[in-house]
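Record 1 of the preview.
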Amino acid sequence: MNTTIYGTAVAMAADATAMMPNDAATALTSSGPDERIKTLNFYSYTFIMPIICLFGLVGNSLNLVVLWRSKSLQTVSYIYIRWMAVADLFVMTLMIPFVLIKTPIVHMPATVHMARYQAHIQLLVINGFISISNILVVALALDRWLAICHATKTQSMRTHSSARKVVVFIYIGAFVLHIPYIFYRQVQPQMEMESNETTYRAGFNQEVTDNVWFTLWTWVKETITKFIPICASLVLNYRICVVYTQRQKKLRELRGKRPVSVQDRGMGGRSDRRLMYLLFCIVMVFIVCTVPAALAIILHNKQRYERYSFHVFMCVANSMEILNFAINFYAYSVASTDFRRNFRQVFCKDKVDPEDLESSVCLHNGSSNKTAQCALSTYENDDENATLSLSENDEVAL
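->
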């Protein structure tokens, strides 16, 4: 039986097929127990997924232009978002040939170089960038959790330099984690009877896929790159919402007792609120699009694979996982007024709306002989340089 484990697949295919090692390259052209499965696969992987990838290419390209060219989106949090967009763009770019090469309408030359790429490089780079994007979601959520829940203690830690080091570590670590994919497939020569020529294909390396250590690595990798990010994103996002709500309540109480000072504004600034909404959007998209893929990995077995209904579920899960890397630009445009404004400024040369700017103010450390620190405006907000924490008496208990 041939397997159509795909998309989740890139993430799952090579992985779940470690339990049932078969070559997905022949999935669309092989005869299965149900002709409906072949039809489903054809439309899913020939039309739906390539269309998602094309939308993702356009969206992530625009996303990177806005994030890189806009001077006001250069805070620590946006460093993670920017490099997540880079990973998503690579996923979309690499997924298009990965998807189309499996379909009957695209014929790639069966050369030894193409077979080597498919056998030793393709799954490594695609799954590497997928994992990078997933882990960067957690890094972003962790950054916002530190900024909102532990602002006083972690202000000196949350710097551009430390964020870049975290990004480099995630990129390198993700590819190191996927090194076993180099040995997952092997180049297999085969003779074409009609032309009497030798062609090459990437087939599964049975010695590797049957090894218990490879199966163990598969589940460890999935735990690190999928299950942990899902759980961590949920927990961190929940804590951020709880603490932010407490801050807003505390701010309303202070407003009723005395005039609102500059320091009080930092308790629930417009920038924190907008970034929290953007984070919530990113996390929800990630969870909704990734959970079906995770379930497909857990539920996949030989008995279920023979059912048409499970193939439908796999196609939906695969498409949603790819959608996770394609939809961020459109999600940002809906969820973030800052992103929309910067998009207009980059592409339409719109001027800054004065009403969207908060005047720069000075924050005092509580001592008359200390120099006041100047807070940045919301539009050019950099909460790493501004003192946005509460005073000792007003700090929210976590």
